[in-house]
């Protein structure tokens, strides 16, 4: 597994490096680890597919939230990349999860929080390998759950929108697609929210809320949201992000 640490304070970078190597040795994980101390250094080396996991300092080069911007940029060109934010404050957890960062740890790094991060990363990588089988033009088609942005009913058809921009018309009702997702495995399908009778969304792909109170997806598609159990779109998104943060803290 290929790791990168992006941390401008050498002492903290060395500590994090030793903790990652210790975890990998204990769990028999092949570890290739590179350390960068500036944004320029990581930019000169980075390319999609080079790293599996990057531990990224939020206050890189002492710039407020520079790490968040850099993580957003890297993940936009490498959809399989996992980001772990290293921060002095938990306030950045929600910002991190909103760009699909996998985890965050509070500095200084400890054996406990690094182990928790890497254990969760393993679970997320397993989740990302899960797929659902649907019928497209009467042929069975496998779709990775992480690639599903949303599904909708349109002119008596169910359309599944994929992260690469494809829209697949499936020979199933929206309810049956939702049920397929529920059978994938515990915790894996929890990110799917039936936010409207005509829409099912992957909350990991929600990037914001528009002026009408509807979800904005990673593909810029707008998805209608009904008030669900008294919860607006804003509240549904808040509860989802809070749940992720609690999973990390727990």
Care to describe what's here?
This protein is an alpha/beta fold and 250 residues long. The protein folds into 2 domains: 2-128, Response regulator (Rossmann fold, 3-Layer(aba) Sandwich), CATH 3.40.50; 131-234, LytTr DNA-binding domain (OB fold (Dihydrolipoamide Acetyltransferase, E2P), Beta Barrel). 35% of the residues lie in helices and 29% in strands. The protein is built from 7 helices and 15 strands. The strands form 4 sheets. It has a 5-stranded parallel beta sheet with strand order 2-1-3-4-5, with helices on both faces. It has a 5-stranded antiparallel beta sheet with strand order 10-9-8-12-11, covered by helices on one side. Helix 4 (92-98) packs across helix 7. It is elongated and about 60 Å long. The two termini are 25 Å apart.
Strand and helix layout:
Layout: E1 2-6, H1 10-26, E2 32-36, H2 39-45, E3 53-57, H3 66-77, E4 82-87, H4 92-98, E5 103-106, H5 111-128, E6 131-136, E7 139-144, E8 148-154, E9 157-162, E10 167-170, H6 174-182, E11 192-196, E12 199-202, E13 206-209, E14 215-217, E15 222-223, H7 233-249
Parallel strand pairs: 1-2, 1-3, 3-4, 4-5
Antiparallel strand pairs: 6-7, 8-9, 8-12, 9-10, 11-12, 13-14, 14-15
Helix pairs in contact: 1-5, 4-7
Which terms summarize this structure?
elongated; Rossmann fold; alpha/beta; 5-stranded parallel β-sheet; 5-stranded antiparallel β-sheet; 250 residues
